[in-house]
Amino acid sequence: MADAPGPAGDGVAADSTGAAGRTTVQAIASACAVALGVVALLA
Fold first, then answer.
1. Which spans are transmembrane here (predicted)?
2. C-alpha dihedral over 7, 9, 14, 18, to 10 degrees?
3. How far apart are CA 41 and CA 15, in angstroms?
4. What is the pLDDT at residue 16?
5. Secondary structure of 1-43 as H, E, C letters
6. Is 43's pLDDT higher than 50?
7. pLDDT by residue (tens digit) across 10-39?
8. Pairwise CA distance, residues 31 & 11, whole Å
């Protein structure tokens, strides 16, 4: 679901790997929350 980082994204990830990791975890958690919400609405 997440876009693959381009040249600029690679540089940012290399400079702040920790921050990028936290952002990825938050994005995954948000996606899961949205998916669970949709399932709850359809159930």
1. 24-42
2. -170
3. 41
4. 57
5. CCCCCCHHHHHHHHHCHHHHHHHHHHHHHHHHHHHHHHHHHHC
6. yes
7. 555 555 566 666 778 888 888 889 999 989
8. 25
Q: Which amino acid is at 1?
A: M
CA gyration radius, the chain: 14
What the block records as the tokens of 19 is: 């921050």
Can you tell me the distance from the alpha carbon of 14 to that of 34, in angstroms, rounded to the nearest whole number? 29
Distance CA 6, CA 13 (A): 10
pTM of the model: 0.48
Task: Give dist(CA 26, CA 22) in Å, integer.
Answer: 6
Compute the distance between CA of residue 16 and CA of residue 11 in angstroms, rounded to an integer. Answer: 9
